[in-house]
TrEMBL record:
Family: Belongs to the protein-tyrosine phosphatase family. Non-receptor class dual specificity subfamily.
GO molecular function, one term: protein serine/threonine phosphatase activity
Keywords: Hydrolase, Protein phosphatase
Keyword Flavoprotein attached: no
Keyword Hydrolase appears in the UniProt entry: yes
One record GO biological process: signal transduction
Catalytic reaction(s) noted: O-phospho-L-seryl-[protein] + H2O = L-seryl-[protein] + phosphate; O-phospho-L-threonyl-[protein] + H2O = L-threonyl-[protein] + phosphate
Identification of the protein by name: Protein-tyrosine-phosphatase
GO cellular component: cytosol
């Protein structure tokens, strides 16, 4: 979830981690960026990744504060049928520095109001 391709797939395979599947999404940490446009692909990828193999996934962005926290919260909302507030609190409990920007939080609330509808 970065503004650029920080880690090309070759980074992992060269380090001997050929079993890593990488999904890189070009997302920008600015209030008016439509991060919800990434929900269908990102949330599906998280779901499939958790169902396969050892069921582990790393969602990250540049600092692990806004973009990755928001995507993780959106996934928790669907997976556990919880509110946006509860999802953000769960993410914050696991990562205290997590703090999605205000525009992202608005999109998360809209996601909740639309019944977790993926566009």
């Amino acid at each position: 979830m970065t503004g650029s391709a920080s880690y090309p797939a070759e980074f992992f395979t060269a380090a001997g981690h050929s079993n890593i599947i990488l999904l890189a999404l070009d997302a920008h940490d600015i209030d008016d960026y439509d991060i919800s446009a990434h929900f269908p692909v990102a949330l599906n990828f998280i779901h499939k990744s958790l169902q396969a193999g050892d069921g582990a996934i790393l969602v990250h962005c540049a600092a692990g504060v806004s973009r990755s926290a928001l995507i993780t919260a959106a996934y928790l909302m669907i997976a556990h049928q919880i509110s946006a507030v509860d999802a953000v609190l769960r993410v914050h409990q696991a990562r205290p520095c997590a703090c999605p920007n205000i525009g992202f939080l608005r999109q998360l609330l809209l996601f909740e109001r639309t019944g977790f509808k993926l566009t």
